[in-house]
Task: structure prediction
Amino acid sequence: MNQKDHLPFLHHSRIDVPPEIRQYVIQLLNQTLACTVDLRSQVKQAGWNVRGNDFAPLQALFAALASQLDAYADLVAERIAALGGMAMGTARTAAAQSRLTEYPGTIVEGHTHVVALAERFADYARAMREGIALSTDVEDAGSAAVYTEISRGVDKRLWSLDAHLYHGGASAAPQDRAGSTGE
Result:
């Protein structure tokens, strides 16, 4: 086998990013696509199984989260295709490639679903910021912009999950109060 056998096939693209950089970024974007598909499935899991007094508002929140993740998956897949790669976004690929923590299968109470999703959205947001840095490091401004767009949206969705937890009367993470001076 020669070196070329180890590199993924690239379709023709007039984008002036060198092929080795495109291959690297396509691999990074496919990892992101797997995590996005996985996170969407976890949000759907929460929506299907939520119970309690906040059922209706949580169903609406989870539906909005899933819809936004669908849009992010499309954005990432389109960037992969633009770079000449193949978007690998099947459920099987997502299960094999996602770096997210598995969603607990026994949760029914709304507050617990929100906490579990907030933890996963925080990990996903961290990965998006890493994607910005890695894309910028290899001078792919287009992919860095995709990651930036997703990062902004995910931060907003994470804020809405945190706000819901605050509305519930309890903070999900004690470190949220660590920076407070109490003044």
